[in-house]
Amino acid sequence: MIFLDDIRKAAAILDGRVIRTPLVRSATFSRIADAEVYLKLECLQTGGSFKVRGATFKLLMSSGEIGGGGVVAASAGNHAQGVALAAKAAGVAATIVMPVWASMGKQEATRNYGAQVLLAGDSLAESISIAKDMAEDGRTFIHPYDDEDIIAGQGTIGLEILEDLPDPDVVVVPVGGGGLIGGIASAIKPLRPETRILGVEAAACPSAFESLRKGRRVTVEAKRSIADGISVKELGETNFPIIREHVEEVLLVEEEEIASAVLALLERKKILAEGAGAAPLAALLSSKFEVPEGGKVVLVISGGNLDPPLLERVVRQGLLKNGRIMRFSACIDDVPASLSRLLGLVAERGGNVLSIHHARGGIGLSLLRARVEVEVETRSFDQIEDIRQRLTAAGYEIKVRR
């Protein structure tokens, strides 16, 4: 178990070495939830996530044991950058084993922080196993979550939350291997036992959810998720008993819900969060847990390392889910002004055309007609339905696509 004194020691050592991230109230999300909603912005931490806390504390506690080979770690991205930064600050070499599917942006960021990157393993578990084997040559292995010093370092977030907001009713934390929620829960529960600690996982990889349900650690099959930072197939051995004792519930969120939360943070708070970091907001906006009326809710936005190509896809998915984009196809006469008449009706109902694909010919299509695929910016599903009805009333047969 991790004790409060361990976390207080970590906080004292990390003071001045990591950023004390802000806890900010969101008027928009507070209004939506009918509660006082606060965001703990670890996405503003050095390296873009909370991981540098645990990595820095671990390296400092292990400084007398680290040999000339330096340290080796395994990570899909955020722990990699945290270890790279901590190792650079400590003046030791770092080798990071990353799964072959790790994003190119996180690979490059890790290299830019001074670490050597090795792509190996089809899963994080395989990468961890490879890194442990590499540690046999004299390097010190830094586990991403199943380590008491790592957990204590992450737990400093819990102390900061209580310093800024002494009486939260609910604290919602992303769950991957369990180091973050294990540390936060170990900090908060001894000081304020009435605070509910909730975990959030992507439904695509429900390892903590299934472990709590079955009463033992289990390994699950992981599907692809935009919340890659919490796609961990099995909870850490050290973390599971902490979660079982201190965490009231683990919630599951779907990919569309995560995408909507990423978009909401961008639009409403101008905050860039990766999928894992947005998962607590996804749980709030999709009503996955009860919020006491007027109660105080803290959402831990754990990281902001979202690659630009994925960001584009996530934002588009969020817009589609929220009725902000309408996509439809229609057949029109292949004569002058036919397309402009169709688009004029869309504009008449307030739609803003984003793109058009115009094609002649094709199976089942008359030689005298053309098929158009149109994407329109909209305000809501009500406006989408209004445009659909207007086009139908004008004689067009349209197919609205999601």
Automatic annotation (TrEMBL):
Residues 327-402 form the ACT domain. Keywords: Lyase, Pyridoxal phosphate. It is an enzyme of class 4 (lyase). Coiled coil: none annotated. GO terms for molecular function: threonine deaminase activity. It holds the Pfam family PALP. Its EC number is 4.3.1.19. Gene3D superfamilies: 3.40.50.1100. InterPro entries: ACT_dom, ACT_ThrD-II-like, Ser/Thr_Dehydratase, Thr_deHydtase_catblc, TrpB-like_PALP, TrpB-like_PALP_sf. Its cofactor is pyridoxal 5'-phosphate. SUPFAM superfamilies: Tryptophan synthase beta subunit-like PLP-dependent enzymes. PANTHER family: ACT DOMAIN-CONTAINING PROTEIN, THREONINE DEHYDRATASE, MITOCHONDRIAL-RELATED. This is Threonine ammonia-lyase. The gene is ilvA.
